[in-house]
Write a structure and sequence with these properties.
Elements (H helix, E strand, L loop, with lengths): L18 H7 L5 H7 L8 H13 L32 H8 L8 H13 L3
Length: 122
């Protein structure tokens, strides 16, 4: 399938974490973490687990976890066209100047793109 990746120049700059927000959500859990926490539970223990889930949701400490089965495939009917170069230079020189790179849809093309992104620490 075709893919479009957009990477900004600030992609490698980490944002500072807010200590207040970290402390507020440090006890947030996902469904798989809650299930692992109660791994030895039997069928009769299902109500306390459900109650704990409800309590976490009420406190806004529930992290919704999606799997590939939860997400339906989508199709794009239309997309915005890329801006055209303003000068009369060749397309290749304008593309390089704007940072646009076309990668062939092959394993080697994707591998070279990933290697370049790693080299640039993105």
């Amino acid at each position: 399938m075709p893919v479009l990746l957009t990477v900004l120049g600030t992609a490698n700059t980490p944002r500072p974490q807010g200590a207040k927000r970290i402390m507020q959500y440090k006890k947030a859990v996902t469904k798989s973490e809650l299930t692992a926490k109660h791994a030895g539970a039997v069928y009769e223990d299902a109500n306390p687990i459900a109650d704990e889930e409800k309590a976490l949701k009420a406190k806004n400490l529930w992290i919704h976890e999606w799997t590939a089965a939860d997400v339906a495939p989508t199709r794009t009917a239309s997309a915005w066209p890329a801006p055209r170069p303003r000068s009369r230079r060749s397309k290749a020189s304008c593309s390089r100047q704007q940072g646009i790179r076309r990668v062939p849809a092959t394993e080697a093309g994707v591998a070279s793109l990933v290697q370049d992104l790693v080299k640039e620490h993105i």
